[in-house]
Design a protein that fits this description.
single chain; 240 residues; alpha/beta; Rossmann fold; 4-stranded antiparallel beta sheet; 23% strand; globular; binds thymidine-5'-triphosphate
Length: 240
């Protein structure tokens, strides 16, 4: 039980199928259950590629990934999906109702579970303000949600399954600092392991571990205070 939410990368190298260049090069780390990990790095550094290996969208080319102490190769996809909440960089919303969008991937979700998750993701009030509330159709040409609203809806969808591991791949970038902070405070109560790709210093500061990624490698690792002391690069990011 105490391994629920643990994530380990063991000498992981990765190239996308059919590609010759490695986008991840010998990545190793161990995250304990309940830790918050902030992932920073420039465009194309490999942040999304690292995170895609956790819900097994791809398998590592070399090395191994462990979730809850188990090699992902030995974990059934259905089991894995129950443990992991993943919001990709581009929110995946379809033209159904808000309710249908929230319940996607967890069809037995109750309305009260949806509302609780939506409250935590700071989107409940936006939804109740819509014409038909949770039954409002998000038709392609219907309700136009803002980028931040789409992100919050995606976060709510991920929270409904009460994941052991939550992966937010740049899924709070369109939120203002105050809203993001409220969302993260609410996520704290889930006691899940959190991976969050961010460019915000305020988010990095909350993390138990910050990973700076460049060219497919972890180039710096530590807390905000540690990296402020030891990393010129991190200080540059912090002051920029
Ligand atoms: P990413 O892993 O997408 O890098 P990133 O997440 O750090 O970048 P961003 O902040 O812009 O999201 O990309 C690493 C390399 O892998 C990059 O050269 C593009 C390539 N790549 C693919 O070939 N196929 C893919 O599906 C993805 C996601 C990336």
């Amino acid at each position: 039980e105490q391994l629920k939410g643990a994530v380990t990368f063991e000498h992981v190298s990765f190239r996308y199928p059919g590609m010759s260049t490695y986008v991840l090069k010998d990545i190793s780390f161990h995250i304990r259950p309940g830790e918050t990990v902030a992932i920073l790095g420039s465009t194309g550094a490999g942040k999304s590629s690292i995170l895609q290996l956790i819900p097994r969208l791809y398998d590592p080319t070399e090395g191994a990934v462990y979730v809850d102490g188990m090699n992902l190769k030995d974990v059934k996809m259905d089991d894995l999906r129950k443990r992991i909440g993943f919001t990709p960089q581009e929110s995946i919303l379809f033209s159904g109702t808000v309710e249908e969008n929230l319940a996607w991937g967890k069809s037995d979700a109750t309305l009260s579970e949806m509302k609780a998750a939506a409250q935590d993701a700071q989107i409940h009030e936006t939804i109740t303000d819509l014409k038909d509330g949770y039954e409002t159709k998000l038709g392609q040409k219907g309700i136009n949600l803002s980028g931040g609203q789409k992100q919050r809806l995606s976060v709510a969808r991920a929270l409904i399954r009460k994941p052991n591991i939550l992966i937010l791949d740049d899924s709070t970038s369109a939120l203002d600092l105050q809203t993001e902070s409220k969302v993260l405070d609410a996520i704290d109560k889930y006691k899940c392991t959190l991976f969050i790709v961010t460019q915000k210093l305020s988010t990095a500061k909350r993390a138990d571990k910050i990973m700076l990624i460049d060219d497919g490698k972890i180039i710096e690792e530590g807390t905000h205070d540690q990296l402020m002391n030891t990393s010129t690069l991190y200080r540059e990011i912090a002051y920029s």
